[in-house]
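To: structure subgroup
Subject: Chain for Friday's discussion

All,

I'm putting the inputs and outputs inline so they're searchable in the archive.
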Amino acid sequence: MRGHAATALPDLNQTELSRLERIKAVEAARVAPEADKQRRAPRREQTADLVERGRSRSGGRAIVASNARRYCCPMRLPWDDDDLKGVTAGDVLRDPKQYEGRTMADPH
């Protein structure tokens, strides 16, 4: 529809905000098991590949963890919260739950 101006929606009131937060919490809990499974999938696949090539499972896990630290961990992330200054990608990979819900700065 051409020529129609965008209509701004009013801000949510406190009751609506509370309801939204409850909905978000319920949905986060509902999808958490699958989300965790999907986050771990690449490491499991890489470990399985190494096991197929003759490594032990524990050895494969150690290699995958070492590679993750070496290749992506030193990068500092652009957080928009000063108390996270200096947190690296590796920190997030080691304890992703600690950073859930935190936001990054817009790089542009």
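Points worth raising on Friday:
The chain has a mean pLDDT of 82.
The chain has two domains: 17-72, 75-108.

D.
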